[in-house]
Design goal:
It is a single chain. The protein is mainly beta and about 625 residues long. Helices cover about 10% and strands about 45% of the residues. It has four helices and 48 strands. The strands form three sheets. It has a twelve-stranded parallel beta barrel with strand order 7-9-12-15-18-21-24-22-19-16-13-10. Strand 42 and strand 43 form a beta hairpin. It is elongated.
Length: about 625
């Protein structure tokens, strides 16, 4: 990547962060001096400005480009490979300690390290503390069977250093526990606290009990390279203000607040979280992984359960700028959104399983799926973003409401659902406003199982490649397809089946043939349907997974103006994609149930471009 591109990205992000900061400040000021309708106007303006800023982030960015735009990681390979025989020995003895070497002072149960070097600690402090005060120095602490509890503050407080390294000696078991209460202005407010860049690694284990606040925290960068680290914290589990990077080891977090957190909101190149290896398991009452700027996963295993207690919101993975999942496996179960970004999300190669109380994947701006495998097992809405692009990979969505919804934050999904439930246009089709939103499929596989609208855009929609299968709603207030603006199909394969109350079909300007067939009566789940051309050739076979009464189909085998017959019965064999057979089945004793002329809009429905009933 060129330096010019990097500078351009940095400029973009700086502007984005500045806009979002201005929005937050402006909203606070207006809220403080306004009331009634004025405050509502302020909120609406805030939403619009925030959406514009979100849209400026390119959702197709790869992990390397995002990380190159961030502050460099301080840690290097080999930082935790130390020679214990050269270390200064510190023995902890309950209520006292002893040291053999320079750079260490002992005052009762407080051990203070004041010089650069490597220090090996063993033993326990029942109510004591290890403090590092070594300005501009690199200090390495080897924990080799250490247990420290402190009723007055942090167990280990790295108060002043240039860089700190904590090495968990091979095979050792270590534990830290802090006070159950901190003053509001306390700087060291975690069981393991560092005011300097902190690296943790080695082949041993560390158990941290953050009784009063966070478990492990650095006010600079924090890197976990190895070891088995287990954290139980009253608030955030593991926090690196500038960045939090996990490249190895096993990190298990139970948190009353956020699980993993990077919260620098002042510097555009900081506040990010990256996982490139190891195993991360988070159980949190707040957000599982929360980054002020970016969340980037390129390897390893990430397992997150984010379950809010009370009225608070708990997202699985949350970013302020962009989330890029490019490698490894990610498994999320969240009471709010499984993946949430205030700007953009790019699924670029990771294997992701998501269960959500709200959206499976939510982006205020771009939502891009270019590679990998995504399975949303449960959600309110599956994929929601301003501009949604599926260009590759394999995606399966299960939702209680819309499966795919290209929309903006100023229009909530619940509002749209209410329209449909009141006998309106189901949030799309004729009569609805056309917003600046897009839903595009250019490649890959997208399978939708939706109880609300299946493939929905409050703006425009376009399919140029790939395979889209929509197992849409059974209720007539919603449709398998729902597009407010233009909807064109010029390539790929589309099969959308659902109720017949709110039928939408592609525009007549589409470059590829399509048909919409409304059956005289609905057919039940498990019915095998065939699309047959005038020569008696089966061009598509589909097995329903719900009760359906309308089927929309488009592929290179369909020619507009030709008549096609729909048969029920016969057989389907081989692999299927969401019920659409990869190889056409056999008619056998199947019976013809309806006919459809390709390119004709369904009667009473929407399709065929401006003349077909859609405004």
């Amino acid at each position: 990547m060129s330096m010019r591109s990097v500078r351009r990205m940095r400029t973009m992000r700086t502007k984005l962060m500045a806009v979002l900061a201005s929005v937050a400040l402006g909203t606070a000021v207006l809220a403080g001096c306004s009331s009634g309708d004025s405050s509502s106007s302020a909120a609406a303006g805030s939403s619009s400005t925030s959406s514009s800023a979100a849209a400026s982030v390119d959702g197709s960015l790869q992990a390397a480009a995002v990380l190159a735009d961030n502050q460099d990681v301080h840690a290097e390979d080999g930082d935790t490979d130390v020679n214990a025989s050269e270390a200064v020995e510190i023995e902890l003895n309950g209520d006292s300690a002893s040291a053999q070497g320079d750079g260490v002072s002992v005052d009762g149960a407080t051990v203070t390290i004041t010089a650069a070097g490597t220090y090996r600690l063993s033993g326990s402090l029942d109510d004591g503390q290890v403090v590092v005060k070594a300005p501009d120095a690199k200090v390495t602490l080897i924990l080799d069977g250490v247990g420290i509890s402190n009723s007055k503050g942090a167990a280990i407080d790295i108060a002043d250093a240039d860089e700190a390294v904590v090495v968990l000696a091979d095979g050792s078991e270590n534990s830290l526990a802090d006070t159950d209460s901190y003053a509001e202005d306390a700087e060291a407010n975690a069981a393991l606290y560092s005011a300097a860049d902190l690296t943790i690694g080695g082949g041993g284990s560390l158990t941290v009990k953050g009784n009063g606040n966070d478990g492990i925290a650095s006010s600079d960068g924090l890197v976990v390279q190895g070891g088995t680290v287990t954290v139980d914290a009253a608030d955030d589990g593991v926090r690196g203000k500038d960045y939090l990077v996990v490249s190895g080891g096993t990190v298990t977090v139970t948190a009353g607040g956020d699980g993993l957190k990077a919260d620098n909101t002042e510097d555009a190149d900081r506040g990010y979280i990256a996982v490139s290896g190891g195993t991360v398991k988070v159980t949190a009452e707040g957000d599982g992984v929360d980054a002020a700027t970016d969340v980037v996963v390129t390897g390893g295993k990430v397992n997150v359960a984010a379950k809010a207690s009370g009225d608070s919101s708990a997202h699985g993975l949350k970013s302020g700028v962009i989330t890029v999942l490019e490698g490894g496996t990610v498994d999320v179960d969240a009471s709010a959104d499984a993946l949430h970004s205030d700007s953009a999300v790019h699924l670029a190669g990771a294997t992701v399983t998501a269960a959500a109380g709200d959206d499976g994947v939510h982006a205020e701006g771009d939502l891009v799926i270019s590679d990998g495998a995504l399975e949303i097992t449960t959600s309110n809405e599956g994929l929601e973003g301003k501009d949604i692009l599926v260009s590759g990979g394999s995606t399966t969505v299960t939702s209680r409401d819309d499966g795919v919804n290209a929309s903006g934050s100023e229009t909530s999904s619940s509002d749209q659902g209410d329209q449909g439930g009141q006998g309106g246009f189901g949030g799309g089709g004729g009569g609805e406003n056309v917003g600046d939103y897009t839903a595009k499929v250019t490649g890959g596989t997208l399978v939708i199982n939706a109880d609300g609208d299946g493939f929905d855009s409050n703006g425009t929609a376009e399919i140029t490649g790939g395979t889209v299968v929509v197992n849409g709603p059974e209720m007539n207030g919603n449709g398998a397809l729902d597009v407010n603006g233009s909807f064109t199909v010029s390539g790929g394969t589309l099969l959308a089946a659902g109720s017949a109350g709110m039928v939408v079909a592609p525009d007549s300007e589409s470059g590829q043939g399509w048909l919409s067939a409304t059956l005289d009566s609905s057919v039940p789940s498990g019915t095998t349907l065939h699309v047959v051309d005038a020569d008696g050739k089966v061009v598509a076979t589909y097995v329903t997974s719900k009760t359906v009464q309308n089927v929309v189909f488009s592929s290179s085998a369909i020619e507009n103006g030709e008549e096609y017959r729909i048969y029920s019965g016969g057989s389907a064999s081989g692999e299927t994609t969401g019920g659409l057979a990869q190889q056409t089945g056999e008619l056998g004793s199947a019976k013809e149930i309806t006919t459809a002329t390709a390119g004709d809009a369904p009667e009473g429905g929407f399709g065929g471009g401006p003349g077909g009933g859609r405004s």
